[in-house]
Structure formats: structure tokens, C-alpha cells
Amino acid sequence: MARVTLLFAVLLIALGLVGFLGTAACTHRADSTWFGLALGIGGLLAISPSESRRKLFMHINVTIGLLGFWARPLKRCVAVFMPPLPALPQTRSRWRQSSPCPA
Fold first, then answer.
1. Which pLDDT tens digit goes with each residue over 1-18?
2. Which sign, positive or negative, has the C-alpha torsion 7, 71, 60, 26?
3. Quick check: 17 and 33 in contact, CB under 8 A?
4. 12, 7, 44, 8: which is closest to 31 by C-alpha?
5. Which has the minimum average pLDDT: 74-78, 84-88, 94-98?
6. H-type helices in 2-96, by residue range?
7. Rounded to 10 degrees, what is the CA torsion of 36, 42, 43, 47?
8. In angstroms, rounded to a whole number, what is the distance separating the alpha carbons of residues 27 and 102?
9. Contacts of 14 by beta carbon, 8 Å cutoff, 6+ apart
10. Using one digit for the tens of pLDDT, what is the confidence trace for 24-65?
């Protein structure tokens, strides 16, 4: 199972990098990279002759995977049920450039 975790970690990291580099460098497009990195570290730690250590890190990996799976739907639910925050006054700065990322 640790090898499967490492495979999915590599796929998530590749997906995040393609999304990051392919969409004008929007940082929120690279969320899967961080989940892939966490799964990869856990997968490497799960490769162990000790059964208890392997169980521990695979359970941690399952938790990280579930958090990654539910992150986007939960974020949308929170956005629907939470009232919007009041807008802060905008300050003009000549150094600030508009973001290429959609909100």
C-alpha cells in the first residue's frame, strides 16, 4: 500500500505543477501539490519492516487523503453558509499589480 500511496503522491504533485504552471502561476491551483507532498512523505515513512510503524503512517496517509478529498466541497459549503466579511478599504499602490488569478 505504501507504493500505491507514493504513486498517487507523484500524480498529485504532477497535477499541481501542471495546474500551477499552466494557469498563469495561480497559487491556489497548486493545492494538490501540497497534499501530494504530504502523502509522499508519509508513503516513504510507511516503507518499514515494522508493522506498527507501517500501520501508523498509512492511517495518517488515509487521513491526509480524506482531508484533500473533502477540502474543496467543505470550502464551498463554508462560503455558502458564512456571511461575507465587510470589504476593507482599498489603498492604491504603484507597486501592487493586479492578480492574474480569478477569485
1. 888 999 999 998 898 888
2. positive
3. yes
4. 12
5. 94-98
6. 2-22, 31-46, 51-81
7. 170
8. 11
9. 36
10. 666 666 778 888 999 999 999 999 889 999 999 999 999 988
